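Could you help me review a protein record that somebody else here produced? This is what I was given.
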Amino acid sequence: MGLADDAKNKAEELKGRGKEAAGSATDNKDLKAEGQGDQASANVKQKVTDAADAVKNKTNDVKDKLTGH
């Protein structure tokens, strides 16, 4: 995972915020809802990325302990 995934997720979240704001400004409920959905999707993806990174780090910790590093 990593930095590239974090950047993609942040970009998707910002795109969603923009859609939501545009939908609010123009009273377009569909666009606003789409923006909220984009943000929710980005947040879920970020949580998955964070969890995968945590597992990878723990795996590396165990490996280091077993190899004496």
Notes: The CA atoms of residues 23 and 29 lie 6 Å apart. The helical segments are 3-26, 29-67.
